[in-house]
Amino acid sequence: MKKRVRAGIVLFISMLMVISLAACGKDQIQKVRIAEVTRSIFYAPQYVAIEKGFFKEEGLDVSLKTTPGGDKTMTALISNGADIALVGSETSIYVAAQGSKDPVINFAQLTQTDGTFLVSRKKIEKFDWNMLKGSTFLGQRKGGMPQMVGEFVLKKHGIDPHKDLKLIQNVDYANIATAFASGTGDYVQLFEPTASVFEKEGKGHIVASFGTESGHVPYTSFMAKQSYMKKNKETIEKFTRALKKAQDWVQKQSAEETAKVIQPFFEDSDLETIETVVERYKSQGSIATDPILEEEEWNNLQDIMDEAGELPKRTDYKKLVNTEFAKKVSK
Length: 331
Description:
five-stranded mixed β-sheet; 16 helices
């Protein structure tokens, strides 16, 4: 009888330990909501981190939603609809200029050049930027990084975007490709994979890269509200570490392997196109190799914004950029 009682007690204690350990494990899982400004192959390391389980390895349960447009993405972050936003760093400057008491802080960089390409309606054997003079150029949304970089590059080549060509900026981002395919414009500024798809289908021809022309800028970064970062330092560090693992993986693996991993996020694109785009972005150094946002890049960003007349005021690097976690995980 005593043996049975002892056995029962042992079993009961064992069950309590299992339940306790399960509860502890559950507590260690941290939910993180990401709002991305668009779904893009440009963001390959983010999808790799999800698919390869790098976030899970850090104890993070990540959910991802696409909120098209920088304004919508930032609204989601500020209104607590998301914990972390993946969006252009210029948006944090716009928020700071409005006098926010809880500024949005850039803590991990994902892309380090512009991700758009100049696509011509006609095939051009030897392209020269002066060919744009007198043409109709279908650009991006006014005030957004693609358009600001576009104008910066045109001016770099001695072209006044408001005098030397007909600049169209009133087409919604989602309809730019459709407008060009329907016959609007001689040239268009497009992201991938649309640019490659157009080239494949004979609707346009890639003649130049705005990314290689503009130099390094913190084009897309992960950011969070200052209050969230103070309360969740461990979560931010784990998130950044998982991202670094993914960045390292993408750099080491072939474009084909990366394409296979991220294909579930791009069901409308064939594997060959995804591979082509990954290789193009890697070869021109658009995908950041580490999450550290350098001060020189930050200043270049503000120079581009200033040139476009969209910079509210210059903002100190240390005010809106925190490299503590990026540097720690990159050692």
